[in-house]
Structures
1.
Amino acid sequence: MSLTSGSAKAAGIRDAEIEHTIRTYVSPLLRAAGIDEQDFGLHVVNDKALNAFVARGQRIFVTTGLLMAAERPSQIIGVMAHEIGHITGGHLARLEGALDDARTQALIGQLVGIALGVLSKDGGVGAASSAAGTGVAIKNLMKFTRTQERSADQVAVNLLDQTRTSARGLLEFFELLQDQELLVRSRQDDYVVTHPLTRNRLEFVRNHVAKSPYSDNKLPTVLQAMHDRMVAKLKGFINPPSQTLYEFKADDPSVMARYARAVAYFRDSRLNLALPIIDGLIAEAPDDAYFHELRGQILFENGKVKDALPSYQKAVDLRPRQPLLRVGLAHAQIELGQKDLIPVALRNLQQAIRYDRYMPLSWRLAATAYGRNGDLGMSALALAEHNLLSGRNLDAEGQANKAQRLLKANTPGWLRAQDIANTAERARKKAQNR
């Protein structure tokens, strides 16, 4: 797991297993909605509040608080169906127009700030506590009208029916928030503030559950297992180790409990306790890429880079299309400092970028690999990409101009550097004129 620590407003988590789990939930809904999965962005915000919202086009942001509060995957699926309803209804664009009319563009600035904060920063390994101020900013983000909420609810239950999925999860989530409407604003969870929950909306979903032929359908048991592991991993990385070890007792033999304890011991620098647990999990599930990834991370973070390499490699071999796993492997290969591993690391990074080009860390590592290979033009171009994604427009412009001087004119790399320089210059000037 890695944390993209944004400004004071937001912190984003990147983790291959967690993203895979949520995308597994969402994929049938996206297909039913006619949304290409490659055009869909998923971002996990490290905040204890219960919230999810749409921003910057077809991007859904969901908080760790919501993920950890959900007892069943059906609850998250219901929330995601609702958010997809906002995407298909074009509600974000309408909201921006309303804000323009009301001359409250500052709210959009906060929206973009949080979205960029989650998208832009590099991820180091490990997780950190929630950044202060996220909840306050999110509360001012998207005060959707009740009409838009009802519309999104309608789309949600339609999508759930199309995928033959029970809407009980969505109803359970609404019931969880029902009492929030009675609290003063400062004590309400963010989801209630940004998605006003009314009695009519609750009754609408309840009536749908009563009438839908799919309300008693059960999700595959594997989804619950994936959910339990996701929650265990999040709690292990986000909560204090002492809290995790208290919640997941040493005599609990479940996969969920052992997974959480392994992470807690790792974060508590007790390698002698973390490794035997993860080794036991691997012995039971040798083809589980995410167990191997965690083993690699534990070793890497404790300075045992050479020992971490086989675990990272095994994870990639098992799931070669997971960009985050390839970035982890490439990072270890580069850190090992062996000249023969640099071209291999670069190939892994190029593959990772092919699957997800919006990961700043992959570009920063690529810059290092290109530099060690003596390709200074491509190194400058990779740094330009890194800085552009990180919101450092002046640095992006400078590196892009350097790349243009070093690369052959009119080659794909040179043309891309030109595009970055122009984009960064426009963004920088726009920011100066605000």
2.
Amino acid sequence: MRVIAGEFRSRVLKSIPGDATRPTPDRLRETLFDILGPRIEGVVFVDAYAGTGAVGIEALSRGARHAIFLEKDRFAVETIRDNLASLKVERRATVVKGLVLLALPRSTAETVFLDPPYALEREYTAALDLLSQTPPALTIVQHSIRLALADTFGALRRTRVVKQGDNALSFFAAHEPAPRS
């Protein structure tokens, strides 16, 4: 697995053996950051259910000011820390070990990337419900194309869906509910 573009382009990242994590495919990561473009520069970016940290590291490589990695698996947390150390960006990152649903409400990031294990479908709804209470500027959810997410979660409204193979990226932004008449 490699960083696709930016400051750390082509740098190799350590991966996690086995099937405990499902890394975001390089092509999907490239699509995500092509869509985000200059919107990533200077933001605080959360990589929730971070796995190896590849998405958050890609955000740092492309100009994010700070990345917060949320992950509960001990081996994944070690891998994220190793990857950050190999790039010498530990000061631009925070690694939080624990349950994402407990750490997420404390985040003040402008951009949040959620990629729960596909088998934990309830985790998607729970995370989006939490984020809708104090919505970030942008929330991106990677999910199976077979998972039908609602178009709205409280103050979050889906603005775009991009499908690639078996994966989809759903983009959510904060919106004001329509006034009742």
